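Q: Structure tokens for this one, please.
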Amino acid sequence: MKARIPGAPDRGNMMKKVQEMQENMQRVQEEVENTEFSASAGGGAVEVSVNGKNEVLSVKISPDVVDPEDTEMLEDLIMASVNEALRKAAETMEREMGKVTGGMPDIPGMAGLF
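A: Here is the predicted structure, written as tokens:
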């Protein structure tokens, strides 16, 4: 039996905490990935929904903004909506993961653990 050095970290307890953090991170990641994020542009003329996996779920376009002579404006509205919805998803993932890790910084050599 190895003698424990006073003041040294308890490796078993530390590994248990790491495992709990990994499980919590996986749970949070799954929750965010399954959450729907929506954004609109042009006063609601274009609305896009994405999930936390950065997949576009739906695109809704008001018939009022469909102008065959000005497709560039419609393209811009779609792009703005998609980018905003993806930004919301990314911010939510970052915020929720930060809650689990407690804002713990990246530790060299630990990247594979989290």
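A few notes: The radius of gyration is 22 Å. The first strand starts at residue 36 and ends at 41.
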